[in-house]
Design a protein that fits this description.
This protein is of the alpha+beta class. The protein has one domain: K homology (KH) domain (GMP Synthetase, Chain A, domain 3, 2-Layer Sandwich). It is 40% helix and 26% strand. The protein is built from 3 helices and 3 strands. Strands 1-2-3 form a 3-stranded mixed β-sheet. β1 and β2 form a beta hairpin. The chain is globular and about 35 Å long.
């Protein structure tokens, strides 16, 4: 799951070297934290949050294949 988020984020942003993904795995749920460069935050969130919603949909679809739940948190600094 971590690799999927990292791949998608690196292809969205203009500073791919600053993409950081941290994954916390629990019994039936996974939390994925995504940090990007300040300038790329708008690209990852998108207009009215559409890109972030699409990322969450892709992650949930991948997680549902293994009867798992996943949550994506975009960290703003």
């Amino acid at each position: 799951m971590r690799e999927l988020v990292e791949f998608l984020a690196r292809n969205l942003v203009t500073h791919p070297e600053s993409v950081e993904v941290h994954e916390t795995v629990a019994e039936h749920a996974t939390t994925i934290e995504l940090r990007v460069h300040k300038e790329d935050l708008g690209r990852v969130i998108g207009k009215q949050g559409r890109t972030a919603k699409s990322l969450r949909t892709i992650i949930n679809a991948a997680a549902s294949r293994t009867n798992h739940k996943a949550a994506l948190e975009i960290i703003e600094e």
